[in-house]
Amino acid sequence: IITNTHLPLPLSLSSSPFHLLPSLDSISLSQQLLKMSRSGQVKNRAPAPIQISAEQILREAADRQEAHTIDPVVQIHDAEEYQSYLRDRRKHFEDNIRYRREHIGNWVKYARLEEEHKEFERARSIFERALEVDGRSGELWLRYAEFEMRNEFVNHARNILDRAIQLLPRVDFLWYKYVYMEELVRDIPKCRAIFERWMKWMPDDNSWLSYARFETRCGSLDRAEAVMRRYVNAYPSAKAFLKFAKWAEYEAKHIDLARSILEACLSELEPEESRQAHVFQKFAFFEERQGEYERARVIYEHSIKLLHLGEVKPMEVDEDISEWEQKRREELYKSYLTFEKKHGDREGIEKVLLAKQRKQYDARVEINPHDYDAWFEFAKLEEDAGSISSVRDVYERAVAQVPPSTNKDHWRRYIYLWIYYATYEELSNQDTDRASQIYQTCLKVIPHKEFTFAKIWIYAAKVHVRRKDLAAARKLLGRAIGVCGKERIFTEYIALELSLGEIDRCRALYNNYLKAMGHNCVAWSKYAELEKSLGETDRCRAIFELAITQPALDMPEVLWKGYIDFEIDEGEGDHARKLYERLLEKTSHVKVWISFGQFEASEIGQGMGIARSTFQKAYNHLKDQNLKEERVLLLDAWRALEQDRGDLASVEKVEKMLPRRIKRKRMRKDSGGNDLGWEEYFDYQFPDEDQSGSSNLKILEMAAKWKKSMADSSDDDDSDDEISD
Questions:
Q1: Per-residue pLDDT tens for 256-272?
Q2: Contact residues for 600 (Cβ-Cβ < 8 A; gap 6+)
Q3: What share of the chain is helix, strand, coil (3-state, %, to 5)?
Q4: Among the listed residues 398, 396, 312, 300, the one whose alpha carbon sits nearest the alpha carbon of residue 359
Q5: Is the torsion defined by CA of 498, 500, 505, 509 positive or negative?
Q6: Lowest-pLDDT range, 3-12, 37-46, 639-648, 667-676?
Q7: DSSP character string of 267-318
Q8: What distance in Å separates the CA atoms of residue 183 and residue 387, rounded to the nearest whole number?
């Protein structure tokens, strides 16, 4: 912790941050630091009592540096001193050699000493002695040859390098040094002969390339090309062909030769060599550099098709793809995308983006085959930009992913794949036969014993209708009624027959419909409406009569209302009145009373007098049942009717019957009967209720009036005082 940089405190062990370490006497400082680093935690985060500044650390580090020792400068005045100096240095090196005979550095330094003093024979003798110790050291041979070259003993250097390459023919840097020296002295034939000797040993790629570059520098492009051809024949691999093509493009400047080499690489090599991703990538890059964008595009497309790029699950191949090759293929695909973005037109760019999106969707459905939303988006993508075969392939792959369970919720999304597939075939391809086959296949896949889908039966039947095959549509809907028996099947079948004008078939379907679902009031109402539309009044009335006598109905109010409206439309007021009376025997709902009163006040009714008596009768009935909310609704409807049809007196009479809305308190209780506290609620106080409630209400009214009068009187007194002032 560095805080006080202005305090010149001496740096010692007591003031260092390590004085907090325990038991320094028994544990060394390094061991303690190692222990702290392994623990990974700082035990004491408090600052040290004596702080150390950065300036102190730097100053002490500078003070503790050891002084640099400089070797003494030896001055020699005559030949005797010179010989004495050499004798001492030689004795020193001889002692070092005796001490470490195998250490090559001692020999090289010893020879360097003799070289500096122009004792070349002695230097050669030292190198020869060293070669007797370690004659297979390529570094030692190189130092020996460099010594001869520095001192311009070319023939000696040749002899040494010739001996070296005969002894160590697999050490490349000796060959490199040999040919470098011969080229340096401009002995081209000799250099070429050395390269030829070297090539007989079949060296690595760089050696052949060095030979070709040597011939290129000499201006012999034919010889260089011949060398590279020998190279690719010696190493028939993609790497050799690519190096040959690179040499032809950049050094020989022979574009046609480079293109022919790359083409030969793809055609002449074995598949495991020629089908490597980097080969296609290098070829495409070459064509792109030459401005041949169409050629590059063809190469990219061929490689993508051949290597199955852009697919999550490529086709099975015999070879195993390594991780390195997989990365190369990914790079090739990215290069293709970049190429299309740079040099492609709108169609090409869209094609690239489509391929990229197709790959993403392939990955999604590969991870989760039952992700039906991904299949929907994938199919939509193919419909917008793909071919018919690709769209069908996606749909076929999607519908093959049948839900693993028989839970209907898992099938709801899946079933729409079949619907979209059939819709695509019918609307986009105008192939109703294939759409019908798709629906038939879907019906075979659905487990009808567990559940079924009415929409599939209906859509399949409608396809038959559009194909003008009514017999098949009727047969399919009849089968659907037997297997499925849902309400929607009946309604669609009836709508189909009704649109065709088959009334008898509609009646038969309604009979079966009501036999299967006698409680369905909508079915009864639709059946009666059908007969009414046909002018069959007796049939319609009989259907309604049969309907209201059913022991169980899901929505009886709909049925009764339809029956009453039918009688009113027919002008049968007596029948409608009897129906109201029959309905009131079953239920005393306030809406029934209101409707009954409004009916009597209508033109088909018996007038306002009977309507008022009906409302009064309803009011008394609801009052006996102590239904306050319903009485309020009844009085509101009665007042609206009087305002529309009655006079002021009748309206005033109804308004006097209206209650007052008051706020009260009551105790809330839980399910166990325990008190939860008081709560406020609104209640209605009717004028014709008991006098106790009305007397209490009058007392409250009088109190409110008294309070208001007192407030008014106080205001008058204040105003009189102001006037007198």
A1: 999 999 999 999 988 88
A2: 577, 606, 607, 610, 611, 614
A3: 70, 5, 25
A4: 312
A5: negative
A6: 3-12
A7: HHS-HHHHT-HHHHHHHHHHHHHTT-HHHHHHHHHHHHHHHTTT-SSPPP-S
A8: 64
Name, in order, each residue with C-beta under 8 angstroms of 361's C-beta and a sequence gap of 6 or more: 374, 377, 378, 381
Reported confidence tier of residue 34, pLDDT bands at 50, 70, 90: very low
Is 71 buried (19+), middle (13-18) or exposed (0-12) by CB count in 10 A? exposed
The per-residue pLDDT for 115 is: 93
- Per-residue pLDDT reduced to its tens digit, 142-164: 999 999 999 999 999 999 999 99
pLDDT 10s digits, 356-378: 788 888 888 889 989 999 999 98
Q: How is residue 48 written in tokens? A: 């040290």
Q: What is the pTM of this model?
A: 0.57
Longest dimension (CA), the chain: 160
Cβ-in-10-Å burial (0-12, 13-18, 19+) of 117 comes to middle
Give the containing element (helix H, strand E) for 187.
none
Phi, psi values for residue 662, rounded to 5°: -125, 160
Phi and psi torsions of 152, nearest 5°: 65, 30
Residue 571 backbone zone (phi > 0: left; psi -120 to 50: alpha; other: beta) = left
CB under 8 Å, gap of 24 or more: what pairs does 639-647 form?
Answer: 641/597, 641/598, 641/601, 641/611, 641/615, 645/601, 645/608, 645/611, 646/608
Q: Are 332 and 277 in contact (CB under 8 A)?
A: yes
Give the list of residues 6+ apart from residue 34 with CB closer than 8 angstroms, or none: none
The answer, yes or no, to whether residue 68 has pLDDT greater than 60, is yes
**CA dihedral sign of residues 578, 579, 584, 590:** negative
3-state secondary structure of 511: helix
Q: How does residue 571 score in pLDDT terms, banded at 50, 70 and 90?
A: confident
For residues 153 and 147, what is the distance between their CA atoms, to the nearest angstrom?
9
pLDDT in tens, 322-338: 888 889 988 998 888 88
Q: Enumerate residues 6+ apart whose C-beta is below 8 A from 93.
A: 106, 109, 110, 113
Q: Token pair for residue 605?
A: 């009714």
Query: Which structure tokens are listed for 252?
Result: 């020989």
* CA-based end-to-end distance of the chain: 84
Q: Would you put residue 502 in left (φ > 0), alpha (ψ -120 to 50) or beta?
A: beta
Please give the Cα distance from 114 to 90 (Å, whole number).
9
Spell out the residues 6+ positions from residue 722 whose beta carbon is closer than 8 angstroms to its own.
Answer: none
Rounded CA gap, 556 and 554, in Å? 6
Question: What is the token pair recorded at 385?
Answer: 């930009």
532-537 CB contacts, 8 Å cutoff, 24+ apart: 532/566, 534/503, 537/570
**Two structure tokens written together for 504:** 């008898």
What whole-number distance in Å separates Cα of residue 149 and Cα of residue 144?
9
Residue whose pair of structure tokens reads 């014709």 in the numeric block = 688
For 82, 92, 267, the CA distances from 74, given in Å and listed in that order, are 10, 16, 73
pLDDT digit string, tens, across residues 239-260: 999 999 999 999 999 999 999 9
d(CA 725, CA 717): 13
